Amino acid sequence: MAQGAGRQALDAERDVSGRLRLMIDALVEPRKGGAASTPRPLPAIVRAAIRPLLKMWSGFPKAPGYLYQVVEHWGPRLAVQPLECSLFNGMRMRCDLRDHIQRQIYFCGAYEPIETYLFELLLRPGMVVIDAGANVGQYSLVAAGAVGRHGEVHAFEPVTTTFQQLAAHVRENRLSGIVRPHMAALWHRAENLTLHLASDMMGNDGAYTIGIPGEVACTVTAVGLRLDDYVAERGLKRLHVVKLDVEGAELFALQGASRAVSRWRPTMFVEINRDASRRLGYEPDLIWQFLKPHGYLMWAVGQSAETCRSLSSLNGVDRANIVFHIGDLPDELIRGWTLKSVLRFHRRKRALSKHRGSAAVGRGTGPK
Length: 368
Hints:
Elements: H1 2-28, H2 44-58, H3 64-74, E1 83-86, E2 92-95, H4 100-108, H5 113-121, E3 128-132, H6 138-147, E4 152-156, H7 160-172, E5 179-182, E6 185-186, E7 191-198, E8 216-225, H8 227-234, E9 241-244, H9 250-255, H10 258-264, E10 267-273, H11 274-279, H12 285-291, E11 297-300, E12 309-311, E13 319-325, H13 331-334, H14 339-356
Parallel strand pairs: 3-4, 3-9, 4-5, 6-8, 9-10
Antiparallel strand pairs: 1-2, 7-8, 10-13, 11-12, 11-13
């Protein structure tokens, strides 16, 4: 009986997601000879029809790869101004659909849904967290909900326009007592920096890098600071978790945090991007050589618990998110989840936070 009901529910999800795909394709399929790639917004009535369809689709974790493609292709044309939305934990945001990261947050409830789920599992009330490369604040808002009023989140974002969105999201969610946003880049020296955005990365403000890409579209200046100096100036007494996504500058940010790493050995969630690292003159395995003497282990994030794996080297890893940790990882982190179960978990948690009328604080039950 229960098995039959489960199969009926699964068939219903497949039917809904299939119909949504057909409806969206019918609405946005360009006519022969039309310019599908033009950035001009779609007509208002079409925008108003497609946005809720895509959001509804994200609630049924079917064909997530196809949904991603649709959002990336048509998302920039589905709004003429930033739109209000919420993360899966209920934190409020305003997202500009012309930006890659913000599109995913708006339509799917999170950018990097697996990573945000695992990141939240690493957190406990009262922890101190560093969010380096905070962008518009997704990870900072997730951390704030998990560490609560007795915790701290120190967020660093060097790009002015992106930082302004980060700061606005902190204010709007009344998190100024938890999240401390700083317009700066973590680096190995205290100095001014120039960041570059490649021409092929226009529409992704999270891709500004200190390394120089082949063809530069934009440059901005930023303040670079050492995390060790920041810790001393602020008098931090503890540090538990560091999220580090700084477009190839991860090694230099770690070098500027050598005392903090040695003293507290925080769990670290680090993006590895070989191309970005090479533009700054090093191979990613140097990150491992820096952390290994402190007793760290490595765990690579995959698309499911089964495809995640422990590593002994970063050689051959071109792009991945890596958890550097001391001792065993929580069992709920390394077992029992898939991409689809994570998406379902986000959907349930978002529905619960809406029902409560405020952002969910603390961790919920993991995906089933």
